[in-house]
Amino acid sequence: MDTKLEKVKQKLKKYNQEHLLAFYQDIEEKENQEKLLDEILNLDFEEILSLYENSKIDNVIKYKLSPLLHIEKRKLTKKECEKYSAIGEEIVKSNKYAIVTMAGGQGTRLGYKGPKGTYEIKFTNGAKLSLFEIICNDIKKGNELYNVTIPWYIMVSKENKNQTIKYFEEHNYFNYPKEKVKFFTQHTIPLIDIDGRIVLQEYHKIKEVSNGNGNVFKAMKEANIIQEMKEKGIKWVSFSGIDNVLIKNVDVMFLGMIIKSNLQIGSKSIFKRGALEKLAVYCKKDNHPAILDYDDIDLELSEQKNENGEYLYREANMLSHIMDIDAIEKVSAKELPYHRAYKKNPIINEEGVKIVPTSPNTFKFENFIFDAFKFFDDMFLLRVKQEEEFAPIKDFTGIYTPETAKDAYERIYKEYGRKNN
């Protein structure tokens, strides 16, 4: 018997995962058989199965909960805005600023086959812009305003890397200097079914997905990006997702406020209007910055106010962060916790048939970027207006759809609305 195949069988038996070779003999190409064997040999079964087992334990973590103080942008005076903007502007003009866009996801929830960043919105005036182009246009405005070319780093996944790069090449990088755009790849992790079995995507391939936006720090370190940034003299880095069409990638006032506060991290928040709306909020856990998931928020907590009548736990996360390079380097050496989610995913079933489920069928494990905040004593938090800065595309139904994003974008950028004849 083939030595490699025997080694794989022994490994699978040890972890009760023999089903991964159930269709090995049905794989027509020898090359694909070898790929499956190598994939299994390189897989860290200890890690993924321990995550699964630990996630079944109801670990109630006790911590001291307190509010994270914030500033409201609307309450700033014109003089204050100008003062903070001048500080941030100096950083950008001095080429000490970079942008990271986290774009490892697919457009599956939108019924779209391809990287989510390539999803196009058709505007009322007939223009069609992909999410990547929308982000790029926003960065280019900052470049023009401050006479610089900001380095743009894009985190992709193994699944969408080739398609993403091809899309950029086909669109001439949206006229952004190619040498200023760099792609790096986040890690993946296998999916597990409810019985604790790693699942197959194809007969010859294990189903793996990206392991969350919190992997950005380790992925940057692995791609030598942190060192590259330090060598270029970059001091501050913006982090955001791909799906918010109103994201402000070059907000010098926000940057200036973080610097003036003498803190290493800053985030933007929006006000959580509904007490039990499904939005995670900023807080402090044991006196360290953190996020409180909406499942952990009851009506009493959400309605708590201070002596001035201001809500204590209503600052919702909108995935817009700025960190200094030392903070990034620090957390790149830390292990962030994994969170488990129950998701729908197409898989190969026990009969060897590829199924597309109508309800959740697999467990996905993810790191989240906000879990890095706990390694610091404090962070800066700025509340902005949702209608000005937050219009993500999440799904075809609900409050964050392509249509709501289109409408929000047209309100801000009126040239994309209907032209008058």
Detailed description of the structure:
It is a single chain. The chain has 421 residues and is of the alpha/beta class. The strands form seven sheets. An eight-stranded mixed beta sheet has the order 2-22-14-17-13-3-6-7, with helices on both faces. The chain has a three-stranded antiparallel beta sheet with strand order 1-15-16, with no helix packed on it. The protein is built from 13 helices and 22 strands. The protein has one domain (43-416): Spore Coat Polysaccharide Biosynthesis Protein SpsA, Chain A (Alpha-Beta Complex). It has helices at residues 3-14, 30-42, 45-55, 78-93, 131-146, 161-170, 216-222, 225-232, 252-260, 299-302, 325-331, 386-389, 402-412; strands at 65-66, 71-72, 97-102, 120-122, 128-130, 152-156, 181-185, 188-190, 192-193, 200-202, 205-206, 208-210, 236-241, 265-271, 281-285, 288-292, 315-324, 339-343, 347-348, 354-355, 362-366, 380-383. The relative contact order is 0.16.
Helix content: 25-40%
What structural class do helix, strand and pairing data support?
A: alpha/beta
Number of strands: 22
With helices defined by DSSP (H or I, 4 residues minimum), what is the helix count?
13
Largest sheet: 8 strands, mixed
Major β-sheet strand ordering: 2-22-14-17-13-3-6-7
- Into which percentage range does the β-strand content fall? 15-25%
What's the level 1 CATH class?
Alpha Beta
Which whole number gives the mean pLDDT?
94
Taking pLDDT < 50 over at least 5 consecutive residues as the criterion, the unreliable ranges are none
CATH superfamily: Spore Coat Polysaccharide Biosynthesis Protein SpsA, Chain A
**Ends distance:** 76 Å
Named CATH topology: Spore Coat Polysaccharide Biosynthesis Protein SpsA, Chain A
